[in-house]
Amino acid sequence: MATKIVAIYNWKGGQGKSTFSIILGSWAGLKNLKVAVIDGDDGRTVSDWVQERELKGKLVPFKTALVSQFDFSRGTVNDEDFDWIFIDFPAAFNSKIEEALSYCNVLILPIKIGDAELARLKRLLQNSIVRDIPKIFILNQILWFEKEWLNSTRREIQALIRELKCPIVEIKYRSDYGKLMAGNLFWDNRKPRIYSGDLWVELRTLFQAVGLPSA
Ligand SMILES: Nc1ncnc2c1ncn2[C@@H]1O[C@H](COP(=O)(O)OP(=O)(O)OP(=O)(O)O)[C@@H](O)[C@H]1O
Ligand SMILES: [Mg+2]
Fold first, then answer.
1. Which residues fall within 8 angstroms of residue 49, CB to CB, at 6 or more apart?
2. For residue 153, which of 122, 113, 192 has the smallest C-alpha distance?
3. CA–CA–CA angle 210, 60, 67 (5° rounding)
4. What's the rounded Cα separation, in Å, for the pair 165 and 62?
5. Are strands 4-8 and 106-112 parallel, antiparallel or unpaired?
6. Predicted model pTM
7. Which atom of ligand 1 is nearest to the CA of 20?
8. Closest residue (by CA) to atom 9 of ligand 1?
């Protein structure tokens, strides 16, 4: 299998980049795929998460590495090959990020719906590198109660994405996502959990869109 390099990117902080990098890396690893999650975040969110779990003796089903250890052109980490590489990008946009994105096969763009900046999103989508990468959008942290201005922003973004013919995954605001960063969401120590409920439906849609096993 050729290595699939997946960028999880948004120029803005707090959109869900690290959350979905960890979710995707964990899920793919639990499905016995060989996975690396690259910590592109200066805050080292992924490395810290991994270290904390390992200290507690809990399973981490992927390898992690810093960007400096990742060879973008070969898709290897310290000369090692993987089936899937998920890159937790930093919240910025510059020529280094543009170059890194150019090596990625898929770009996942989590957008926190309450923070959406439509003009900037449009500008990013016009970038020649971003334009040419297949994209999956996550509309993240959707609130369960009606807020007209949020709904109209969501509709505008949906219309924009529909024009691009890209998949959109909608993720509600849920405290479980916070819990994920602290510990176990869909696996308990070494045993995968029984999956059920809305959260599972949302994540399955994401796994399917990315091309990972969904059961
Ligand atoms: N759907 C959701 N519902 C509730 N909380 C969420 C959801 N998605 C993400 N979060 C929370 O939002 C916060 C920011 O998410 P995360 O750290 O993944 O963002 P980020 O894009 O990586 O941010 P940064 O740019 O700072 O690295 C975290 O506390 C995370 O648990
Ligand atoms: Mg992060």
1. 18, 22, 181
2. 113
3. 65
4. 31
5. parallel
6. 0.94
7. 18
8. 16
Cα dihedral 118/124/125/127 (nearest 10): 150
pLDDT, tens only, 63-110: 999 999 999 999 999 999 999 999 999 999 999 999 999 999 999 999
Q: List the domains of the chain with CATH numbers.
A: 4-210 (3.40.50.300)
Residue 179: how many other CB atoms lie within 10 Å: 11
Distance CA 49, CA 33 (A): 20
How many whole angstroms separate alpha carbon 161 and alpha carbon 125? 10
Which residues on adjacent β-strands are paired with residue 5?
85
**Does residue 21 have its Cβ closer than 6 Å to ligand 1?**
no
Q: Report whether 138 contacts 111 (CB < 8 A).
A: yes
Nearest CA to 19 among 197, 174, 201, 205?
174
Residue 201 CB burial class (10 angstroms; 0-12, 13-18, ≥19) = exposed
User: What are the pLDDT digits (tens) for 4-43?
Assistant: 999 999 999 999 999 999 999 998 998 899 999 999 988 8
**Half-sphere exposure for 201 (CA within 13 Å, toward CB):** 4
Strand 76-77 to 70-71 pairing:
antiparallel
Is the pLDDT assigned to residue 215 strictly greater than 90?
Answer: no
C-beta of 34 in contact with ligand 1 (< 6 A): no
The pair of three-digit structure tokens given for residue 111, joined into one six-digit string: 């957008």
**Is the CB of residue 167 below 6 angstroms from any atom belonging to ligand 1?**
no
